[in-house]
Inverse folding.
């Protein structure tokens, strides 16, 4: 255990990993924070340092974000339902999600973690429906384990493969972790804005 603690990355890096995983799963910040960047970076750091702290940081951030969403939805159930049901297009999706949460809560919550935008609203929706907290937590744990874990493994494999080829990606990532996170998120945001601009241009009458 002492070796793991001694080889842990800088505490600021761990805090950034935690914050990135946390904000990635919250409605609002999730539009600007791309969790995959943090998960892959955590895998890189595990391969480089041999420490499990980066993995624990992103797992904790993602898991606690689900908990925050659940309890936020539970405390704001009425306004949340009014917001969702304000448009007819949302009502059908709401009914499907409610049916899924009612019939297969654990499975629905776990799978939602793999479905991008669905993961952002599922915890709040489960809370607004007063779904079982223990079953929701089990589903969230399984979803985080698989959804976050797969990108951690990708990051580890990428770093390990480059090391085997004679490179030193791990050292570079550790030295420039914060800059890489900022750059990757800015690049993702730019890609979204460009995609939306192209979509608007494509559907604008000439």
């Amino acid at each position: 255990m002492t070796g793991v603690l001694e080889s842990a990355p800088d505490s600021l890096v761990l805090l950034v990993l935690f914050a990135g995983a946390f904000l990635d799963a919250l409605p609002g910040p999730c539009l600007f924070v791309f969790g995959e960047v943090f998960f892959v970076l955590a895998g890189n750091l595990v391969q480089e340092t041999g420490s499990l702290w980066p993995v624990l940081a992103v797992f904790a951030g993602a898991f606690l974000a689900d908990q925050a969403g659940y309890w936020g939805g539970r405390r704001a159930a009425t306004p949340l339902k009014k917001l969702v049901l304000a448009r007819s297009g949302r009502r059908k999706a709401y009914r499907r999600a409610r049916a899924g949460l009612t019939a297969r809560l654990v499975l629905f919550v776990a799978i939602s973690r793999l479905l991008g935008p669905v993961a952002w609203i599922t915890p709040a929706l489960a809370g607004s429906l007063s779904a079982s907290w223990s079953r929701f937590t089990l589903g969230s744990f399984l979803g985080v384990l698989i959804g976050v874990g797969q990108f951690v493994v990708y990051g580890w494999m990428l770093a390990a493969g480059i090391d085997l080829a004679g490179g030193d990606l791990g050292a570079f990532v550790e030295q420039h972790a914060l800059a890489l996170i900022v750059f990757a998120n800015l690049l993702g945001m730019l890609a979204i804005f460009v995609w939306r601009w192209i979509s608007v241009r494509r559907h604008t009458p000439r």
User: Anything to note?
Assistant: Residues 2-203 form one domain. The chain has one domain: 2-203. The chain has eleven helices and no strands. Residues 1-6 have pLDDT under 50 and may be disordered.
